[in-house]
Design brief:
By secondary structure, the chain is of the alpha/beta class. It is 35% helix and 23% strand. The chain binds zinc ion.
Length: 465
C-alpha cells in the first residue's frame, strides 16, 4: 500500500507541477514530493515515539519524568541535526494523583474502576468517606441543584459515553461534567463528586483529565471519574430504585510549586531566519498510560518531519521551529509561557500548527491564513491529496490546543485533521500505549507534515494578513 502511494504520486508529479507554476517552483514541488515519498518509507517517527514512551514513560506535568522528557527532547534535537536546541523553563503548581479506591457498598459491595481528576482533593484522612449517592442524569441537572442540598451525599453525574466520530465533536460537550461539575457539587455541599468518564469505549478503564478552576480555586473534595461500564451499572441500579452508597479513598492533591518547560528545536532559515514556521506537539502526558497517542505521536510526527527537512542540502528560506510543549494537559501552561516568552517575535510567526489528536490517518487540511497565502495552502493540499487528504476551508481557526494562545495574538494556523474515531477510546486512560499506534498511519502523518512544513518555509508567500 505504502509503495503504491509512492508510485502514484511520483507519476502525478510533472502534471501537478505544470498546474501550479505560479505558486510553486518546479524545484520546490519536486523536493516536496521527494520528502513525502521518503517520509512514507521512514521509520523515524515510530522510533521517536517508541523511545519516548519506553525510555521516559508517563510524563505528568511538573514531575521528574517530565524533566527527563525535556532532557530526552534536547538530546534528540541535537542528534537529528537541529541548528539550535533550547529549553524555556517555567514554574507551575504540581498536582499528584496518589492512590485511590472507589467501592460501591450498597445495594451490595462491588469494586468500581475509577481515577482522580486533575485538581481533585484527597478524601478526609481522619474519617471514612462513605455515603449515599445523589444521582444526576446530566451535568445540567447538577448545575441546577440548590445550594447546600447535597450535604452528606456523594454526587454522581452520569451523562453518556461519547459517540465515536472522525472529528471527535462529542468531546467538548461531554467534558463539561469533568470540567465544571465539581463547582456545583461543592456549592451544594457534597462530600465528593463521581462522574462518568469522558470517553467512547466500553472498557473498564477510567479516563482522567483536568478540571477547570473557579477563578484560582480548586476543588476541596475528591472528584473521581469511573469507567463507562461502571456508570452504566450505576444507572441501571438507580433506575431500579436502589439506594446506592459508595466508599471513596483518595490521596490526590497539590504538592506545591514545580518546574516544567518547552523544548525548542530550530532549523534556521537560509534567507529569512527571523520568520518562523512553528510545528510541534506536547511532551507531557497523563500518568495512567505512557502517553503514546496523547501526545507522543504528535511529538514524533512533527520532529520526524523537520528532521527529514534537516537532511536537505540547504535549509528552507524560513526558520522551522519544533516546539515540544510542556504542561499542556494541566491547562496549556507551556502554551501560555511560549506566547509570553516569545511575544516579541510572534509577529514573525508566519504559520503555526500542532499535532495533538492521536496517530490516525490525516483526512483533511484546513487553514486560517491570508488571502495571499491561501493558494500556497491549496498547492500543498494538491500534493498531499494522494495520501487521502481533502482540502477543507480557509475559514477554520484552530491549529491545536498549544497554538491557541498565539493564534489569539494573530498567528495564522493550519490543521492537518486526523481520523479520531478511536481517539476517545484511549484518551487519558491506562490504555494509551504504543501498541495502539499503526506505523503506516504514523508515516502517512509524517508525509503530510513534511510537505506542509517544507513548503510553508520555502515558498515566497505571506501567510499573515
Ligand atoms: Zn494532547
Amino acid at each position: 500500500m505504502k509503495y503504491l502511494i509512492v508510485v502514484i504520486l511520483l507519476a502525478m508529479a510533472p502534471l501537478a507541477a505544470l498546474a501550479q507554476t505560479n505558486v510553486l517552483s518546479p524545484e520546490a514541488d519536486a523536493t516536496a514530493r521527494r520528502l513525502m515519498a521518503e517520509a512514507l518509507d521512514s521509520d523515524l517517527a515510530w522510533d521517536i515515539v517508541e523511545s519516548l514512551t519506553t525510555e521516559v514513560g508517563p510524563r505528568l506535568a511538573g514531575s521528574e519524568a517530565e524533566a527527563r522528557a525535556r532532557d530526552w527532547g534536547r538530546a534528540l534535537g541535537e542528534r537529528l541535526g537541529f541548528d539550535r536546541v533550547s529549553i524555556d523553563e517555567f514554574e507551575l503548581p504540581y498536582w499528584e494523583r496518589g492512590d485511590m479506591s472507589i467501592t460501591m457498598t450498597a445495594p451490595y459491595r462491588q469494586a468500581l474502576y475509577g481515577t482522580a481528576l486533575g485538581g481533585s482533593a484527597a478524601s478526609p484522612q481522619s474519617e471514612e468517606l462513605e455515603a449515599e449517592i445523589a444521582y444526576f442524569r446530566t451535568v445540567d441537572d447538577l448545575v441546577a441543584v440548590e445550594d447546600s442540598s447535597l450535604i452528606g451525599r456523594i454526587a454522581f453525574v452520569d451523562g453518556d459515553a461519547i459517540v465515536p466520530t472522525q472529528n471527535g465533536e462529542g468531546y467538548g460537550p461531554a467534558n463539561q461534567r469533568r470540567r465544571i461539575g465539581w463547582q456545583h457539587a461543592e456549592r451544594a455541599g457534597a462530600a465528593a463528586l463521581v462522574v462518568r468518564s469522558v470517553g467512547s469505549d466500553s472498557h473498564r478503564f477510567p479516563h482522567t483529565g483536568m478540571m477547570t478552576p473557579q477563578g484560582s480555586e480548586w476543588a476541596d473534595i475528591p472528584v473521581i471519574a469511573v469507567s463507562n461500564p461502571d456508570a452504566d451499572h450505576l444507572r441501571r441500579l438507580h433506575a431500579a430504585g436502589s439506594s446506592i452508597r459508595m466508599d471513596i479513598h483518595s490521596s490526590a492533591g497539590w504538592q506545591g510549586e514545580s518546574d516544567s518547560g518547552n523544548v525548542v528545536l530550530d532549523l534556521v532559515g537560509r534567507e529569512r531566519p527571523d520568520e518562523i514556521i512553528l510545528i510541534g506537539g506536547h511532551l507531557d502526558s497523563w500518568d495512567l498510560g505512557t502517553g503514546a497517542v496523547d501526545d507522543g505521536a504528535g511529538i514524533a510526527i512533527t520532529t520526524a518531519a523537520a528532521a527529514l527537512i534537516a537532511q536537505l542540502p540547504q535549509r528552507p528560506r524560513r526558520t522551522i521551529r519544533v516546539v515540544m510543549f510542556g504542561a499542556e494537559e494541566v491547562g496549556l501552561i507551556g502554551a501560555q509561557d511560549y506566547a509570553n516568552t516569545h511575544a516579541a517575535e510572534l509577529a514573525n510567526h508566519q504559520l503555526a500548527s500542532e499535532s495533538d489528536f492521536g496517530a490516525g490517518n490525516i483526512w483533511q487540511l484546513v487553514s486560517n491564513v491570508s488571502e495571499a497565502g491561501n493558494p500556497a495552502i491549496d498547492a500543498i493540499g494538491k500534493i498531499i491529496a494522494p495520501l487521502g487528504i481533502i482540502r477543507g476551508g480557509n475559514d477554520v481557526p484552530g491549529g491545536g490546543p498549544d497554538i491557541s494562545p498565539m493564534a489569539a495574538r494573530g498567528v495564522p494556523t493550519v490543521n492537518l485533521r486526523q481520523n479520531g474515531t478511536d481517539y476517545f477510546d484511549l484518551h487519558h486512560t491506562p490504555d494509551d500505549t504504543l501498541d495502539k499506534i499503526d506505523p503506516d498511519q504514523l508515516a502517512q502523518n509524517v508525509a503530510a507534515w513534511v510537505v506542509l512544513t517544507y513548503l510553508a518555509a520555502e515558498l515566497d508567500v505571506q501567510f499573515r494578513e
